[in-house]
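Justification of computing resources. Each target in the renewal requires a structure prediction run like the one illustrated here; the chain below, 686 residues long, is used simply to show the kind of job we budget for.
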Amino acid sequence: MRKRSGIGILKGIGEKTENLFHQIGIWEIRDLLRYYPRGFEIFDDPIPISEVEEGRTCAICGSVFGRISVSSGKRLQVTSLNFKDLTGTIKVIWFRMPFLRNTLSRGGRMILRGRIIRRKEGLVMEHPEIYCPADKYNEKQNTMQPVYSLTAGLTNNAVIRAVKQALEFADCRDDILPEKLAKSHGFLPYTEALHKMHFPESREDFILARTRFAYEEFLVFILALRRMKESENRAENPFPMKEKAEISRFLSSLPYELTGAQEKVWNEIQEDMRGPHVMSRLIQGDVGSGKTIIALLSLMLSGLNGCQGALMAPTEVLARQHYDNITQMLEKYKIDLKTELLTGSMTPKQKREAYERIASGEVSIVIGTHALIQDNVIYHNLALVVTDEQHRFGVKQREALAGKGHMPHILVMSATPIPRTLAIILYGDLDISVIDELPKNRLPIKNCVVDTDWREKAYHFIGSQVKSGRQCYVICPMVEESESLEAENVMDYSQMLSGELGPDVTVGCLHGRMKQKEKDEIMDAFGKNEIQVLVSTTVIEVGIDVPNATVIMIENAERFGLAQLHQLRGRVGRGKYQSYCIFMSASKSKETKERLEILNRSNDGFFIASEDLRLRGPGDLFGIRQSGILDFKIADVFQDASLLQEAANDASCILSEDPQLVSEDMQKLRRHIDSKMEEYMLETTL
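Resulting structure tokens:
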């Protein structure tokens, strides 16, 4: 067996650089070969300055006009100049590059390539690459240059150099796809596909390579799921539940009736929990469809049968909110079940006391974060675990819970809008229930798609909502690949917005560089209306339920996938007030307007998903990034729906002929699946 090679053997990678690669999960050469580009820079011909458009990355050819200035702000230095050609002049800025004042020549012809943004002074090219003399641009013109996800201190060029060397080590013996299967689909040979995945000569080359590896991801994923389902799905039910009259009385006392879809799903869950086998069920419901009340009913059924149930939330703030709401409902409707909150930030004494109450069986419903499955937690008789798709239980968690007692029922909640046919494939180890209608009393969100000229009116509207006692979100996209730039973008925006809205409005900001405790504190303050307007990146996609929030404005909406935009929109419309979503787009393209118009006219996540699939087609180089259980490196369940179906069909044939994957041509694939099963199934925060 050949020894795996560490990346330290590559030229130019010393100990310091090797540690940077480790930070992005690259330890071996084979890791580097599978570290696919997150996109490509396509170097088109330079365009006249008069034709630049907001939101577009382009190249312009001209010369520096006038003086070059460097201004020092609170956090960074900005170098700025005017750049001109025969058709016009544009302002250009760079961050943290004051030396350019001495190195850029006035009057000399050069090419700048960067993104066009709009500032108060008009269109600006932000932080462009410099090609001086202009002939240097010719070397890259009409080529596709890979762009990789980075960490601080690691440059894109360093990754490119390392990948080029790593490709020399690529060996067809590392190919996990059986040769017969690869040939039947007409896939590129393994080593050729790797080269074209990183350094394609054309879009067509890249699509051929990407198709091969996307199929491979799907096949491995589906085989892992189906093997798990075969091993677990028929486990005997150690906690058969009986029907309880208290639940019927609880439902009849509620100020609303369950929708038909909710009743259907609730009946399916009861049948599972009363049946001969352990429940493993996914509830798929759109944002606001009422999945939480179904989870509560399931926890009540477990508790009233003398067993314990656990509800895991993605954040401490949300766990606390679930705890408060559930406790209040149980008290209000006189359901004699005790609850317990368990989170990582509790003091050792608080945790110790909670552990004692859980172990004694004093409490029936335990609500918390991943602290619920730590070694110190010993359950009295845990019969049900309710979790969401971001905290899905896999092999290790189920083993850990089984070690605390018997195998519990598993209920997974998902708000990801996936067409049912795809869900059946992707969640192959779970039975699937769908809640496909919204509660009758829910006001539909009013949407509008506007361009940047509408921004001042949007700020005025946000201000008027705050004066009425409501709260608002403003979402900013991530800026390039830099977390530090992302943070500065949100902080700068929140400061600017605070000035626009005045001293009577408290504006907070939230971004990915904050520690979880900081995020929780900000969300807690927003939940209490101590912050009226929250400027955030997409970290609020899974966040606290704030019924008082009525407006969400999404800047640069064209940069997001439709499914993600729909999830973000779901942060509002959760209370009794009319809610609004403002999609602000800097793009003038017809395709972008058509995509966003889907969101403008519909709040149905499943319709949006199917339209997204129809519009995007196989021509996109990269699809939207999924989250949680759908976190593929390159495959996209919408864009690659037909490829996913092919992989599912092939998986069925493979398992029918060789259920344990023991034949010679399947052994490499089986070893890879075994190593990936925990990666796919373990929830991400552990």
